[in-house]
Amino acid sequence: MVWITLNNKIIKYAFLKSLPVLAGYIVLGIGFGILLRSAGYGVLWALAMSALIYAGSMQYVGVGLLAGGASVIETILTTLMVNARHLFYSISMVDSYRDAGKYKPYLIFALTDETYSLLCDGNVPEECSAEEYWFLVSFFNQCYWVTGCVAGNILGSALPFSTAGIEFSMTALFISSFTEQWLTHKDHIPACTGLFSAFLCLVVFGSEHFLIPSMLLITFILTLLRKKEEARSE
Q1: String of b and e for 99-123 (b: at least 16 CB within 10 Å)?
Q2: Is the pLDDT of residue 42 over 80?
Q3: pTM to 2 decimals?
Q4: 85 with 58: CB under 8 angstroms?
Q5: Domain ranges of the chain
């Protein structure tokens, strides 16, 4: 058990670091649980999807796929499209996770947008092991998500809810994460790059097809900026 090696100081610090995600994941998870219940799927489905899939936007889309009887091929392609952004931002964590040892498989599985936003700043307390800290932040965040999903499903079975507009909750969380990053970092070039690239691709490709082109453009621009920064530092 990995918990044996963890001390209370690391657990406390990781928990405090994960608190900004707590409210968002609980609320979003409840929304998903209610939506899943309205489609006719009970609490075991909510538990299994939140524990094994653990991808908020894909889980919301997955409700429609389940209810509509989507084929395996359609489900695979949809999953790749919805979660394609993970391929881009996870690249920056390759070096960090390379020597994570026993924590590595779970760290890779649990790297969500919000977890990435907490870990990418590189701030790890001196008295903490980086791998243990990353593991705990990731684990706490998933616990919040699972709790919200299960609670929402139970509430959906006991109380009548309208599910109109619930899917917008994921967009709200992304906006919240962006705002936190903007306020806590002095360098706004990556954020402005993301905004500019997304807007340009939205105009050029339209709302149905802009996500992957914007991700590619963001990656290209940030790669060029990184190379220039490395050249200056040499």
Answers
A1: ebeebeebbeebbbbbbbbbbeeee
A2: yes
A3: 0.70
A4: no
A5: 7-166, 186-234
